[in-house]
Amino acid sequence: MGISAWLRGNVGAMIISWFLFAISGSLTMPYLSKYLHLLGASEVEIGVVRSLGALAVMLTILPGGVLTDVIGRKRSIIVGTWGIAVVQFLYAVVTDWRQFAVVYVVDWALHFYQPALTAILLDSLPPEKRGAGMMLTSVLPQVPWLILPPVGGYLLDHFGLWGMRLSFIISGIISVTVAVLRMKALQETISVKPVPREQLVREIINAYMFWRGLNGMPRFVLYVTLLGAVQSFSSVAMQTFGVLYATTAVGVDNTAWGIIQSAATAVGIVFGLVLTPVIDKAPRTTALFSGLLLIAVGYFLVSAWASAVALTTAAIILGIGAEVAMSIRRAIVGDYITPENRGRVMGLTLALEYIGSILGGVIVGYVYSVSPRLSFAVSGFLIALWAAPLVKTVLRGL
């Protein structure tokens, strides 16, 4: 199945819109912590801001999982995308880290539609292509990360705060384009039936008791769901503090950090394209274990060796491992959960991932303020610990 065949219908619309979002994200996301630092935030405060954003999206993503099954995938996606487009312009005008924190919380609260994004993809992919489809929709939109992170770093190095403000203005313009594209191109994948208001309110209230959804889950899906929280906890070390570690402990500038991000993306894209045709042929357990092993090795490498070479190598390894692990975790949901319940299950899955981010923002932020290397070592240890139950199954399949 050629790439052109994937660029059709809902899958194609999502790939293109995520590609456009990646243009804006690759300018701004690698430097959010640096932006916060320039606005006056300490390492601990940066971690708290990360936690507040994760808490905001968790509180909205739970009813979001219900809404995607009740009001439809497309409507949820359109409302959230327009909200995020507006918020990008607000980032450009904040004057201190507390104002940034408020905008950041609003931004992440508007990500309530994430279950709808995954659900509409799973609905639109044939069962035998789910792993490949999830991998491809993760890999192709990353192409802008090959070029633009150094551009964002250059703007920050030479223009400081105004460089970041310009990047967010560009992000806002692109986000508006994405909102229009999704309005015109996406097609609903489920029959939306009117639901009495009382029933809807009851389902939303029940959604906040998300732990109930864990009961009756297939054992492997339960493991994968809880693994998402652990992976999110661990990812805080690199995603939030990677730029600070690079520019302080390692001693590279923001432009160099952007180059590292681009190099990691380049290798990740190549591996993703190679793995896309074959990932569904490998046992899910083996593929998942491989991804987790790469993540653990990446974190241990950063903690053991503070150098540009180690940081670049670790970023590459982490990127590949994370893409494989996430793609397989999402595919497993598609394998085990029926279409009418995927929105709710994805809401539960994402909620647990954000709980991991909430705890990670506070705990990893504190550990990083004490010892940057220790924060990476702790992250690697947690991933290795949670990958251990898969070893027996993997060895049995060899």
Automatic annotation (TrEMBL):
- Transmembrane regions listed in the UniProt entry: 12-32, 52-70, 77-94, 162-181, 220-244, 256-275, 287-308, 314-333, 345-368, 374-395
Q: Which GO terms describe its molecular function?
A: transmembrane transporter activity
Q: Which organism is it from?
A: Pyrobaculum oguniense (strain DSM 13380 / JCM 10595 / TE7)
An example of a Pfam family matching this protein is MFS_1
Q: What is the lineage of its organism?
A: Archaea, Thermoproteota, Thermoprotei, Thermoproteales, Thermoproteaceae
Signal peptide extent: none
For this UniProt record, the keywords arranged alphabetically read as follows: Membrane, Transmembrane, Transmembrane helix
- In Swiss-Prot or TrEMBL terms, this protein is called Arabinose efflux permease
Domain Major facilitator superfamily (MFS) profile: start-end pairs: 10-398
Which PANTHER family does the record match to this protein? C-METHYLTRANSFERASE, MAJOR FACILITATOR SUPERFAMILY TRANSPORTER
Q: Does the keyword Manganese apply?
A: no
